[in-house]
Amino acid sequence: MTFPAIPHEREISGVAPFRRNDAPTPVALPTVDDRDTIVGESDALRYVMFRVDQVAATDATVLLSGETGTGKELLARAIHRRSSRRTRPLVVVNCAALPANLVESELFGRERGAFTGAHATQIGRFELAHRGTILLDEVGELPLELQPKLLRVLQEGQVERLGSPRTVDVDVRVIAATNRDLTEEVRAGRFRRDLYYRLNVFPITVPSLRDRREDLPQLVEHLVRRLSRTLNKHIDSIPAYVMQTLQAYDWPGNIRELENVLQRAITLSPGATLALGDAWMPSSQPTSAAAGVTLVEIEKRHIRTVLDT
Length: 309
Known about the structure:
The chain has helices at 9-13, 43-56, 72-81, 103-108, 125-128, 147-156, 182-187, 193-199, 216-230, 240-247, 254-268, 295-308; strands at 62-65, 90-94, 133-137, 158-160, 167-169, 173-178, 202-205. By secondary structure, the chain is of the alpha/beta class.
């Protein structure tokens, strides 16, 4: 099986690499906006992108599974950009963030007067995504009583606004994402079996950051470059011991946690060299290097080792 090649970042953007001792130059997949850049060249990521390329040109429903913070929304955007619907909207719905009493009207719309406080007709997210793509993020959080309505949309391509007797035809490509094990949710009676089968047409499992550790240096450099611009800072050097410290941590929050940590580190760095400090360290988290040893302690030990040699 041959995976797609990943072009060199400088061939894409002309951006010079960071100064880092004995480290490869970062690479990245080409995208229009570097906020949506998928960075890495590990076998795990290459396989995921191979699956993305397989399904993107079709209208098949995709189920993205993986831990929180692994970049499922980025992959959904990559699928949309590679599809024939790329010129139409990608509508993102976080099912976990919507209040339970508003989920139905947000997804399917409502007519004026459908319930107290409904002073105007509202177009639902599925109608907004007509001829485009809808991402149902955290679909495992969808209330059980609303799952039959979602099933009907997938089966019939029709929605009914709250308070309306009429159906509305919609042409929508559905991508669902979840950090839950939906098969376990089905066994527990919290998720409909028939809906699971409708969503699980083309499953893609997104690897955790600890399962593709070799991508971390490239991710760090990419994020530092982007976040430095956002924070109006100039960081052009990452010491080897800083990178080793970051690589020793398990990152239970995955890329999202890494991004937050780097944002704090950039803010606290006094010069052009990335510095780590106790103020931002996730000191309560154990690392893979030794249970109970914090990221702060690993960094201190490494600095002492370097100074003693």
